[in-house]
Amino acid sequence: MNPHFPYLTVLVLVPAGAAIVAGLVPAANRRLVQVVGGLGTLAALGIAAAVLAQFQAGQGAFQMVTVHPWISSLGVSWSLGIDGISLFLVLMTAVLFPIALAGAGARSGDKSFVAWLLVLEAGCLGSFLALDLLVFFLFFELTLVPIYFIIAGWGHERRGYAATKFFLYTLGASAFLLVGILSVVAIHAGQTHVTTFDVRALASTKLSGTTGVLLFLAFTAAFAVKAPIFPFHTWSPDAYRESPAAGAVVLAGVMAKLGTYGIVRFDLELFPHAVVVLAPLLLTLGVIGIIYGGIVAAVQRDLKRLIAYSSLAHIGFIIIGAFALTGPALSGAVLQMVNHGIYTAALFLLVAMIYRRSGSFSTRDLTGLQSKAPVLAGLFTVTMLASIGVPGLNGFVGEFLILSGTFLTHRWWAVVATAGVVVAAVYLLWAYQQVFHGRPTAALASFKEITWREGAFMAPLIAVIVFLGVYPGPVLNRITPSVDELVAHVEQVAHPTIPVPGQPTHVRVAAKVTSGGPR
Amino acid sequence: MHAAFLIPLFPLVGFLVLAAFGRRIGNPRSGWLATAMVLASFVTTVVVFVLLFERQPAARSVVETWFTWLPADRLQVTAGLLIDPLSMTMAAFVTGVSTLIHLYSIGYMEHDEQFPKFFLYLNLFVASMLLLVLASNFLETFLGWEGVGVCSYFLISFWFDRPSAASAGKKAMIYNRIGDAGFLIAMFLIFERTGSLGYHTVFARLGHVGTPSLVAIALLLFLAACGKSAQIPLYPWLADAMEGPTPVSALIHAATMVTAGVYLMCRISPILHLAPDAAHVVAIIGAATAFLGATIACGQNDIKKILAYSTISQLGYMFLAAGTGAYVAAIFLMLTHAFYKALLFLGAGSVIHAMNDDQDVKTMGALVRFMPITGVTFLVAWLSIGGVPPFSGFWSKGDVLENAWVLSPALWAVGALTAVLTAYYIGRCYMLVFRGEARWSEAGIPGDGRRHGRALHPHDPSWVMTLPLVVLAVASVVAGVINLPFHPSWVFLERWLNPVVGAQLLAHHWSIGAEWAFAAADAVFAAVGVTISVVLWRNAVNRPAVEPAFLQRAWFIDWAYDRYLARSSTELSDATATKVERDLIDGAVNGFAGLVRRAGGQLRKVQSGYVRNYALGVMAGLVIVLAYVLSRTVS
Fold first, then answer.
1. What is the C-alpha separation between B546 and B533, in angstroms, rounded?
2. Closest chain B residue to A289 measured between Cα atoms?
């Protein structure tokens, strides 16, 4: 493979190009639409796999960086790069989109549905890869439009309400992000007389305490809504509930990660001081999200809303991992973004299969499904256990790293968050018992077992769930160098009293904390 | 030694094969496959055991490392096995008992529609249990710990169309998760204080850890043990767990899984030794649970519930031993208990089969005439658990009690009283089931509509089910020889386990006279319990005076848990979902939106809908913050 091949640019452009092709295909030719959608998403997956193969493990810095000046007068450039923090989010995105399309059933032949989904994929990939803040912002905002139309166009009963609420809520929050970006660039320009949107350069911007905190809040407002973090989450149960299956998969699996990724990539990189100052606040919101999400999930009768609240709890874990500012916690947070994307996607797909067969998401209507569809029940069980955090499956690895790393710096937050482990078991097992145990009602007498086709797109997700639980080493080895550099960067800027000799503050420091003896 | 990886691998392969092809392999071949896998694991264990035995005592601890499971910065956790006398003793009895119960299950589950699935879970359970005991670090033990918990959940709710079974599985899982939170926090603390989770490394660094931390670690791990091993306050799930098929009760909820907590206490003996306050808590909770479980067992009529509360009580004895530093006694009791309690459960299973799934001892009677093998082996188990010399229970329970005396005669007294109760309640069970008048007829059980019309012809089951009974009965009789007290050269188990737990053993050795006095006292307790049970229950069926309501209802503790914990947490959840989530948080969001919409109503006269308003909002925000930033930058 050619190391100079612009993998990342191509990775973003392929789904975008496929979207255009899908837009040009005659709508009546549903078969062709399906082919375009399938090929477009699979081609992106292929390129993502090549990126993984090209990626050098053990390096923390950005790799495969592409920089093309775009609006030179403003210092905006098309710069993309990938590191250990974004690598597996990119891969997860590339894996989930073809699966979401396969799980969409008949809609995979709707021309505009497929086109919007491809646009969305391009937007998500671009967001994860952008090194230029303006490019990031454009991709970040770009994702709103297709998901709005997917929910509003192909959703369930209250789709209009849910789509509008989601759109306005996140758009409103994004306004703060735009203001924040422009301010950082302006301040940086004032200090260096260089106007640039490149996050690597902006990381050296010196911010006074108050300014840093305000800008941090402006950035975080957008990310907190997108993730979502308690108490900015109330759009999500509605949006997840009313989305079509593919929409819910990408919304909860991929788009939620734009928020958490934004926090890790931009908040930690640009505002280390504010991050340290406000970490207790964010940790508290994360812990509240874990407990509160679990408590509210426990009384949901609707499976999709239940997963939405369970997501709130899981995002809480990612948030505390991000703000604990230790290597294991942040590595765990990055890994957990991927884990959560995988098992939440699997849960939404399974719930969609149940809906297709029974016409209901409600635990009031569903019962005894295990006797009708034992394989479906088995897949649900594995996914549920991953979500509960049973070791040997992927959810545990992330949660354990997050909690053990958080314990080092914020002991009591970690202890309370651990209680979330108990709560997760309560609501998921209760839901499972209602839906799968017992005897099926007459209405469910003809409930069908999972088909081969459905099994085919569930299989990769289950395989990833097991693989990441048993052997996460190769993944963690690629994540940790970047995470360690980021943690060192935050530590160093936030606590300049502990200088690292010979290293200017704006260079990311490869100060790997060696494994210690007794502390 | 390198072959040790095969020990958990065999049942794991069995699980994978059955998961993929179970239905095609069918009934009974899938059962034989699963049994063969566990037997292979047992044989491998014996080989490794012998290899280990041939080494010098100081060299009997080998760590086999496979790969790094979690490499994350300073947290590095490996996957591998710790081969030492403690882990191999556990592995040997786990695989041995598992083989017998697998064999028994082929007969017991014969007509079940989900036959292959049953063995799939059973094999996964054995693999997890072996990982638990053979793990080389805390996190791996936790992996096995959760694995057995999940299998327990699957197998309790195995007959999932029964709501009671489904609820019982969930209840077991949730109680265990409460304990697991303790395990997790303990690991965080261990990692923080020692920088490692490997057993050898952690124990080598304990000198740098303060006593408060050690006490906290020990108590948190004990909380986990309380969940897994059904101790106060986390014991109520075990009685409900009897909803599972009886071989499951025998294997998981009596012989192996529930002893995991005791194993954990023995494994962390270096920590308990440095945290005596925590060890005393373990001993006191253990003694209290032993007594509580025994009293409740006296008032139960469901044969499996009697045995379940008996298990809770016996596990309490084991924690009493571990808490007093008598780890060898704990393991000794665990071994003998595995034999006689598995035997009691399998015997109960035979009875339940013979009685067309009836479990009420009050409706049975006189069964020894119809099923002599079951009856006689059950009798052996009774005498063994009752502590009648020279059955194995006499020696192991005696070992526990004399060590309890060293810490406190009060603990010994509680243990002694419990010993009387133990001999009594199993005696009551035996007399009601096997002796006296038959309270059933060949036409069925009177007043039992559910099984009406199904003729009763109780008889001993086929050889796959009686062979395990006989083997376990022999083991229950003779297992005492591995650790006889009267001469230092006879305590084989103690000398074997010494390299692992020896440094922490109480250096107390009684004189031969004292040993005889303890033994005589133990024999008297057993005799008293046995005698009372025979006298009271030889001809009677109902004796309300010794079956008061508070014992039948388990001291009303389950009821109180349900009333004050379960129900109030449901009410809290409901209130949170409506008052806080819907009214407050989402209400604020929608209220804000409504406000904007009303304001937008004014603006709409000028231009269009509300998306535009937001654009205006963006602009306004932009101007304000830019103005602020510029003012800061300029000044």
1. 11
2. B581
